[in-house]
Amino acid sequence: MKFEERFDWKLGFVLILFMIISCVALYSAQQSAQYNENFMMKQLVWYVVGGGIIGVMLYFEPDFYKKISWPLYLAGLIALLALVIAPSTIAPVIKGQKSWFVLPGLGSIQPSEFMKVFTILILANVVTNHHERIRVKDLKSDFLLLGKIVGLTLAPLALIMQQPDLGTGLVFIAIMGGMIIISGIRWRVILPIFGTLAAAGTFIIWLAIRFPQILDQYLGVKQYQLGRIYSWLNPEQYSSSEGFQLIRAMRAIGSGQMYGKGLGEREVYLPESHSDFIFSIIGEEYGFIGSCVVLLAFFLFIYRLTTIASRANHKFSTYVIVGLICMIAFHVFQNIGMSIQLLPITGIPLPYISYGGSSLLAFLLAIGLAFSVSYHHRDFMFGEN
């Protein structure tokens, strides 16, 4: 088959749509007096670079990514460990987090963004190999697979929490949860574990609200670290501190009403609107209609990924795509949710739209894997090859 027949034009269309939405939103964001950088042009350059990377990734079959999953995973762990022990000259603490390498001539690089993709690859590899080697499934094999998934996720998660970066840590937990659900582990093993974790999380939030001193005494959680939960529940009370961004974001989105104020007609000042709060710009300038267009684009994107996963020739490819869906869906839900007070603010970007070189490149690597799976798909008369 020719290239134009094998290339996934539907996925390509959605990616181009994301690029247009991102550039238009960033053009508005950089008009603020807070910034003197051309975020739109930088984002466009990253898209071009990422497009070239996707073009290269197309010509490698999914089996190739399975073979290199361990080297990528180990390289990612080494990078995260190096970030923890690196001197502040190359890994400065920015906004309370030590999450970036700052390299002369290259700018900042955030290893945790790429580690998300590497973790998905290694989990897909391990789950696939587990089922190939163990044909007779029992409770022992289920707990063995569960231990592999949890262990491989906790290794990078522990290093990321040293930065500390709670938002990115939650993404890893979402990836792990999704992989556990589709791994073939029986529900009588999964449900008690998930139920216990949900109950524990609810209990901790209740303690944070009612008895924060207990968390301080036994878990070392300080009062100021609970500010995001308090500001989420009652942003007006913390309007001059942790609740400032949330109040401004909701005011911006609400002021857009149905049709928005139009391109460049922003009135609500909001810090970091080019990154974590890019959705507030879309809501203010294009209103409910524009916001729905963005949500529709993500729906089409995830629907297309689901289609690719359902018809993939190999289990590894299916697991990879499902892992990507979990990662992207959590990012979208969390980012938009925190902008409208549905969820606490955690500071993770809106995929393909928020500004950020490391983040955008990592997401383009992710979609490159999806393009590869779709490009090398084969229809066989008697099912899977």
From TrEMBL:
Compartment(s): Membrane
Q: Which UniProt keywords apply?
A: Cell shape, Membrane, Transmembrane, Transmembrane helix
On whether Nucleotide-binding is a keyword of this UniProt record, the answer is no
Transmembrane ranges? 12-29, 44-60, 72-94, 143-160, 166-182, 189-209, 286-304, 316-333, 353-375
- The reply to whether Iron figures as a keyword in the UniProt entry is no
**Stored PROSITE patterns:** PROKAR_LIPOPROTEIN
Membrane topology classification: Multi-pass membrane protein
Q: Which domain of life does the UniProt lineage start with?
A: Bacteria
Primary residence: membrane
Task: Name it.
Answer: FtsW/RodA/SpoVE family cell cycle protein
Which species does the entry assign this protein to? Halobacillus campisalis
Its taxonomic placement starts with: Bacteria, Bacillati, Bacillota, Bacilli, Bacillales
